[in-house]
Write a structure and sequence with these properties.
The chain is an all-alpha fold. It has one domain. It is 76% helix and 0% strand. The protein is built from twelve helices and no strands. The chain is globular.
């Protein structure tokens, strides 16, 4: 049951069709790239079903974390809801997303030399940990947290920055790329 202030909110305040549309677009695009469009990529092998399920679960997690009434509960009523949203965006979604990415897709994006060097730097374990810690810590400062809760646009920036920093944080563990290997690949 929603708190009284949230219960009176309109449909677009509680449910975010723009997030659901984004998730659908990403899901359909992923399905096309992993399926019929795959032949256009170099060395593109079939994407195993478990990897596809991981990607779709990451998209479901995104929808759950920012497309449902959870954000309004997190914004205005419950610290618990805020922390559940944070855990979904920082600890559940990134590993699933990285597991779902086929290596041949990542390698084709990393062919851009400037992007590859930036990704290599940002996914070094120490750099990724520091970046995640800074992003998390800055947005948890009481005054900034209060400001993000007042201005929805800033709160959205907070959510997506946290998600991006989390992807870099998880990259060394679940690297989808041979040119920027994760911890397991670099140890073997």
């Amino acid at each position: 049951m929603l708190p009284p202030g949230a219960a009176n909110a309109g449909f677009f305040s509680l449910w975010h069709p723009e997030v659901m549309l984004l998730v659908i677009i990403i899901g359909v695009t992923y399905r096309q790239v992993a399926g019929p469009v795959r032949s256009r990529f170099d060395n593109a092998s079939a994407v195993p079903a478990r990897r596809q399920w991981a990607m779709y679960c990451s998209l479901f997690t995104l929808c759950l974390a920012v497309g449902t009434p959870l954000p309004i509960l997190a914004d205005q009523f419950l610290l618990t809801a805020h922390m559940i949203q944070f855990v979904l965006l920082a600890m559940v979604l990134p590993p699933l997303f990285l597991i779902g990415l086929p290596d041949w897709l990542v390698e084709s994006v990393l062919k851009l030399s400037y992007l590859k060097s930036v990704i290599k730097f940002l996914t070094k374990p120490g750099v990724a940990l520091i970046m995640f810690t800074v992003v998390f810590s800055i947005f948890q400062l009481p005054n900034l947290l209060e400001t993000t809760l007042k201005y929805n646009g800033l709160y959205i920036v907070d959510e997506y920055l946290m998600m991006l920093a989390s992807i870099f944080l998880w990259w060394p563990v679940y690297s989808p790329s041979k040119s920027t290997p994760g911890i397991r690949r670099s140890l073997t």
